[in-house]
Write a structure and sequence with these properties.
- By secondary structure, the protein is of the alpha/beta class.
- It has a single domain, classed as Flavodoxin domain (Rossmann fold), CATH 3.40.50.
- The chain is built from 5 helices and 6 strands.
- Strands 1, 2, 3, 4, 5 and 6 form a 6-stranded parallel beta sheet that branches.
- Helix 4 links the parallel strand 4 and strand 5.
- Helix 1 packs across helix 5.
- The two termini are 23 Å apart.
- The protein binds ligand FNR.
Length: 202
C-alpha cells in the first residue's frame, strides 16, 4: 500500500432486506479484509429519491444525494454487492448509481469517473448473481469506472454459506472475497502511484 492512512472503501448493498445475504457479504468483507482497509457500509440507500434531472445540480440536489456523492468522492474505492432482480440489478441500486454519474454544470467532476470499484453478489439460486453482475459492469462502462475484473465473486446457494448469526463460514467464499479486496487495493494503489508521479513531475 502506498498511502500512509488506511484505504477508505465505501460498501453498498443493493438489497434493503434486513437479513440480506448481500449485506452480510459486506460485513464479511469488513471482518476478513486483508488489512489496511476501512470498509464503511452505506446505510441510506432506501432514502435516495428517484433520479430527477431537474434537481440534479449542486444547489437543488436532495441532501442525502449530496452526502452520497461526497462519500463516493472521498472514498478510495467502492465495493458493491448486488442481488439479482429479474436478471438485472435492483432498481434502488441503479437509481443511486444514476445520481453518481453526472456533472451537468461541469463544476464538480463525475463521482464515479475512474473510481476503483469491486463488485460481488449473492443469491440463493444455483446461478448466483451472474447476470446481475454483468448488468452492473455495463453501468460502469458509461461512468468509466475502474472495475476489478477477476476474481469474480458469485455466491450461489447463498443460504448455505452463513451461520445462523449471519457470519460467513464458507472458506471458498472467504478466499474469493479476500482476493477481490486485494485486487481492489491494487487498483487503488496504482491510481495513487500515478497521481504521485504526476505531482512530482509538475
Ligand atoms: C429475485 N430473485 C432472483 N434470483 C435470480 O437468481 N434471478 C432473478 O432474476 C431474480 N429475480 C428476482 C426479482 C425480485 C423482484 C426479487 C425480490 C428477487 C431472487 C433474489 O436474487 C434473492 O432474493 C436474493 O437473495 C436477494 O438478495 P438478498 O436480499 O439476500 O441480499
Amino acid at each position: 500500500m502506498t498511502a500512509s492512512r488506511p484505504t477508505r472503501i465505501l460498501a453498498v448493498s443493493g438489497s434493503l432486506r434486513a437479513g440480506s445475504h448481500n449485506t452480510l457479504l459486506l460485513r464479511a468483507a469488513q471482518k476478513f479484509n486483508p488489512g489496511g482497509q476501512e470498509i464503511e457500509i452505506y446505510e441510506h440507500l432506501r432514502e435516495i429519491p428517484p433520479y430527477d434531472r431537474d434537481v440534479d445540480t449542486p444547489e437543488l440536489r436532495p441532501a442525502v444525494v449530496t452526502e452520497l456523492r461526497r462519500l463516493v468522492r472521498e472514498a478510495d474505492g467502492l465495493l458493491i454487492a448486488t442481488p439479482e432482480y429479474n436478471y438485472s440489478i435492483p432498481g434502488v441500486l441503479k437509481n443511486a448509481l444514476d445520481w453518481l454519474s453526472t456533472d451537468w454544470t461541469k463544476t464538480e467532476g463525475l463521482p464515479l469517473h475512474r473510481k476503483p470499484v469491486a463488485i460481488l453478489g449473492a443469491a440463493p439460486t444455483n446461478f448466483g448473481t451472474v447476470r446481475a453482475q454483468l448488468a452492473l459492469r455495463q453501468v460502469f462502462v458509461w461512468t468509466d469506472s475502474d472495475v476489478v475484473v477477476k476474481p469474480e465473486v458469485q455466491v450461489f446457494r447463498s443460504h448455505e454459506r452463513f451461520d445462523a448469526d449471519g457470519t460467513l463460514h464458507d472458506e471458498m467464499t472467504i478466499e474469493l472475497l479476500q482476493g477481490l479486496l486485494s485486487a481492489l487495493q491494487a487498483k487503488i494503489d496504482a491510481k495513487s502511484a500515478a497521481a504521485s508521479a504526476v505531482g512530482s513531475a509538475a
